[in-house]
Structure formats: structure tokens, C-alpha cells
């Protein structure tokens, strides 16, 4: 168990246990106290820890035997007697402790941590629970970070969130999977080329003798036809129980159904003698599937929040757009200045998306205020202390926001 150790000075309020010499390094001064000192060290020793979070006492054992403190008798975590460490000598009241390891010196030392009781050589002490996901404070459910934060990629420009005549707009390229790209070039032959509305431009291109699958999570209903624009003239493209051979231009499937994870479109050129598997566009009942631009797609991910946009193929500015200041107003970095109209990136882009729909739950919020040049207290709307704060002057009548305002954090 460790807490707050700093390699330079042992760290304030920190301590660690050193198994090779059975010693405990206490906080602050870096002093080392010997507990049941035994300098003998052997490979494959098994170390065990029992921690009582109610009393904040910890017992340390070796090879099935709980260690004694100096000349005392060995402690007993079940009986709650003679803890190896407690708040009187090492533990910090109210602190959080966690398992960890570190090495120093010129030798080579390896550690293995076993959290599964099935792998333990000793039974868990009566009245204690294994440190596992089913026994953590939040219950048996591990929180999913994607519920509140996601990073997505897509084209910088594209449909603006409103489908144009002859288009079905969505985040389609994320549902296209491929065996590998031609010449490993994920930019020139990117998946987004299949959903840019151009049936004859540079296509999405797989590796030679490759394959791809289009399987959206939300089904796309089909009434009569699905047309695929493919420039390869070999291989097999399949959907809804039908198998067609690409002819270098386009092929059309007839019939009703849906395009989904259970009924995907697949294509392969395996065994074709080295042809790649192409895709320029997918047309459903006469309408082309077109990707949203990266910002509208990010706004679909979390309608209320912060969307941090960056072109991945050019040296343009980072653009930060949020649902509080306006859906098309961007703050830039590293460029200084007040907010300005969002500029669609030209190439493949990334969006880091934070959810601010319920700040007390998501742990993220966006607030605005009018500065007056004096110290003040602001309500964050968060449930607890804040770990990170970004501040930026973005408007108003002051000229400070025009050229001098840096980001503060």
C-alpha cells in the first residue's frame, strides 16, 4: 500500500513498505523504522495485506504469517489486534490508499498483484472482502467514462446537421471497418471518402486482397434499392442475402430490408490477384449517405457540453466550441483573442467531447461570468471539489480579450 510518495523527499503524508528488509518508510522526514526486521530476501515470497477502512488499521503478512511489530507478538486482522500500521504511526486519517509498486537501484525486480481470490494461496481473513470490482464503494457497477467523455474522428467538413436533398446525413464512417488500408495510408484513402457525397472522387481503399464491412448500430431502412459506387472490378459485395461482383462503376441491390449490424454490407477482393476493395459512396433509395462534419457529429454525441476540435492533417488552430456561448462560436488555442465564428477544418479531424447535461453527475460544467478585475467566488455547479479549471476571456467591451487573453488553468 502506498500514498503520496515523492522520489525526491519521500513526500509529505506518504509511506511505503519495503519487503526486502521488512521496513516501513514513514512520511515527512524519510526516516525508516524496522518492524520485525529480517534482511533475508527470497524469490517468490508471497506478501499479503489486510486493511480495515473503519478503524484505519493495516496488517502486513508474508507467506501466510502476519508480521510482528518490533518485539510484539504477531498481529491478527480478524481479532483486530496489533495492527502493523495505523493512524498513530503511518496511516493518514481520511486518506485514500491503493496498491502499488516501485523499484530502485541497478537490479531487476518484478512484482505481480493478484486481486482474484481464486489465485490466492491464503484465504481472505474472516470479515474482510477481496479488493475487487464487486466490493468497491460504488457497488458492483464500474462507471463507464464514455458516458460523459468521448473522442471521435471524422471529416472536418460535410453535412451541417441538416440533410440536403438527396442526402442522408449521419456519422457513417465510424461504422465502416476495414482489414487494412492501401499502402497503410489512412489519410489519402480514409473511410471518410466513402461518405463525402462524391461518387467519383478518391475512394476509400482497402489493402490488396482486402475487405470491409459497413454495419451501423442504428438500422438504415431500405425500401427498394441500395447502390454502391466501387471502382474495383473483382471480388464480391454482399447484402441481404445477395452477392454481386463489382464492375468498376456501381452495383445495385434490389429489395427491401435494412442495413445494420445484423444485416451489414460486406465486400472483399480476397483472391482477386491483388486488387484493393474500394468504396466511393453508398446510396439508399436514391439518397447518398453523407458524414456530418466533425462539429455537428460531436454535438450529436453530447448535445450539451464542450467540443474541442482539431484538424489532424493540417496545422490549423484548436477550436473549442460549447453549448453555453453558442453552437458556432469558437475559442482558439494557441492563438489568443476573443471568440470567433467556427471554421470547418478541411481534413480528417478529431473532437474531444465532454458532457455537461447534468454537471453533478458528469463532473463537468461550463459557466460564464463578467469579470470586474477583483477576486471573486464562482459557483461551479459540481458535486465536490474541482480538479481542473480552464478560464478564458472571450468577449465584452474590453480590448483585453482581443489580443492579450491567454488560457488560464
Cα Rg: 30 Å
Structure classification: mainly beta
Strand order of the largest sheet: 7-26-22-23-24-25
Measured between the Cα atoms of the first and last residue, the distance is 32 Å
Strand content: 25-35%
Give the structure's gist in a few sentences.
Helices cover 4% and strands 28% of the residues. With 409 residues, the chain is mainly β.
What does this structure look like?
Strand 20 and strand 21 (287-291) form a beta hairpin. The two termini are 32 Å apart. The chain has three domains: 1-142, no CATH class; 166-290, Jelly Rolls; 294-403, no CATH class. The strands form seven sheets. It has a six-stranded antiparallel β-sheet, covered by helices on one side. Strands 8-21-20-13-16 form a five-stranded mixed β-sheet, with no helix packed on it. The model is unreliable at 1-14 and 26-37 (pLDDT under 50). The protein is mainly beta and 409 residues long. The chain has helices at residues 294-301, 359-362, 400-403; strands at residues 16-18, 23-25, 32-34, 47-52, 57-62, 65-66, 149-155, 167-170, 176-178, 204-208, 211-214, 220-222, 225-229, 236-239, 242-244, 250-254, 257-259, 265-268, 276-279, 281-284, 287-291, 305-311, 318-322, 326-333, 340-341, 348-355. The longest helix is centred in the last third of the chain and has 8 residues, at 294-301.
